[in-house]
Amino acid sequence: MTKFKSLLTIYSFLCVQLASAQSITRLKLSDPYPEAAERITISYSPSSAFLHNKKEIKASVYFMDYKKFQTLNISLKKSGNSLTGEFVIDKNAKAFFVKISSGEEVDNNNDTGYLYPVFKDKKPVAGAYASEAYFYSSGFGTAYAKVVKNIKQGAELYKKEFLLYPQNSDEYQKDYIALWPQLAATTFKTTIHIDTIPGEHYKSMIKLKADLAQKMIKKPAPVFSLKDLDGKKVSLTDLRGKIVILDFWATWCTPCKTSFPGMQLAVKKFKNNPDVKFFFIDLWENGDYYAEDVRKFIKDSHYNFRVLLDEKLSGSKYTKVGQLYNITAIPTKIVIDKTGNIRFTYTGNSGTPNKVLDEMTAMIELADKPNKD
User: Fold this and answer.
1) Beta pairing partners, 235
2) Average pLDDT per consecutive 10 residues, the chain (373 residues; last block may be shorter)
3) How far apart are CA 259 and CA 328, in angstroms?
4) What is the CATH code for 219-368?
């Protein structure tokens, strides 16, 4: 079974085509980013289509809220060589498609349909990609617009929904998972191979992101500057435009050191991403001459960490940056987004290295494209 799975490919994970980027030429909208409750004018040119010279061309629009839909007929008027009409997008619509027909014949736009997501501020609304996924993968598009069922396209669109709105993934996950056997059947004969099909780990990552998305915060990160083990100054101000991960730790802290193998995996995963920076802020060490002990621990453990040494406050057990960030226990990890806002604060150890990696990956990806402000 494992060998069989290793031969499967999920083309949807490699596909870069968006449903909203279809080659639509015969039908044009007055607004490329249509929003709910907006009045839209359509212009249809039948001259290049197989509906050319048809005497009675009709149009209707189907407003989709995932599996629910409403239909509205569009009155078409002659305008030069084109036909025009207008409609108001339903306030609950997540996506919509326009059906152009003459009798039993339907212009299916080369099997892609005239399908559009609904936007808000030029961003697809929650449920837009999922509604498009249902259109392609369920047979809905086939039944109403004579568009050939496309499981791969549907799976890709579900994935885009999960990435854009992870907090809503539970609503659509069952239908997405139901596509996997069909994907296996349709992709087994291809020559593209991947190690595994999405399984329990992918599902757990979707759930993890959904849970973390509910815990996102937004508050300005206090600015600071510290020196690393080589004496080079690092300033948070200079890191604007980067996602910054701060890991507060100490050499005597067992939970800190237990989490480090997972943090090493995270550093390795994002090492080629110039927009992600990790800093390990050492604090609360005993005595005044601890820098060499810190350096020795990092070297002997073979960690590729950029370590910053927090500055002790005179007459206090606290340190400068630790106090700025209200650190009361370690390890504490803080994720700062590209605009300089703290998005996550996490204290403790997640457990296994892979769990630490998954958690850091999820937080970084959510901080890169935050949906909740």
Assistant:
1) 225
2) 35 36 69 96 77 78 94 92 93 95 86 93 95 93 90 90 79 80 54 44 78 90 96 96 97 93 95 96 88 94 95 85 95 96 92 91 88 52
3) 18
4) 3.40.30.10
CATH entry, 2-202, from 2.60.40.1120, 2.30.30.60, 2.60.40.10, 1.20.1310.10:
2.60.40.10
Q: Report the 10 Å Cβ neighbour count for 247.
A: 25
Contact yes or no for 210/169 (Cβ under 8 A): yes
Instruction: Tell me how far apart the alpha carbons of residues 5 and 344 are, in angstroms, rounded to a whole number.
Output: 36
Task: Give the separation between CA 35 and CA 125, rounded to whole angstroms.
Answer: 9
Quote the CA–CA distance of 67 and 125 in Å, as a whole number.
Answer: 16
Q: Is 223 exposed, middle or buried (0-12, 13-18, 19+ CB in 10 A)?
A: middle
CA 53 to chain CA mean position, Å: 45
Kindly list the distances between the CA atom of residue 367 and the CA atoms of 55, 123, 191, 343, in Å, as whole numbers in the listed order: 55, 17, 36, 6
| R_g of the chain computed on alpha carbons | 27
Indicate the domain borders of the chain.
2-202, 219-368
Q: How far is CA 99 from CA 21, 115, 144, 193, in A?
A: 18, 9, 8, 37
| Cα–Cα distance, 266 to 268 (Å, whole number) | 5
- Determine the Cα–Cα distance for residues 303 and 267; give it in Å rounded to an integer: 9
Rounded distance, CA 52 to CA 47, Å?
A: 5
User: Does residue 370 have a cis peptide bond before it, meaning omega lies within 30 degrees of 0?
Assistant: no
DSSP 334: E
What is the pLDDT at residue 371?
A: 57
d(CA 239, CA 110): 47
Q: What is the DSSP letter of 36?
A: T
**3-state class (DSSP) for residue 103:** coil
Q: What's this model's pTM, rounded to 2 decimal places?
A: 0.54
User: d(Cα 274, Cα 86) in Å, to the nearest integer?
Assistant: 47
Cβ pair 113, 149 in contact under 8 A = no
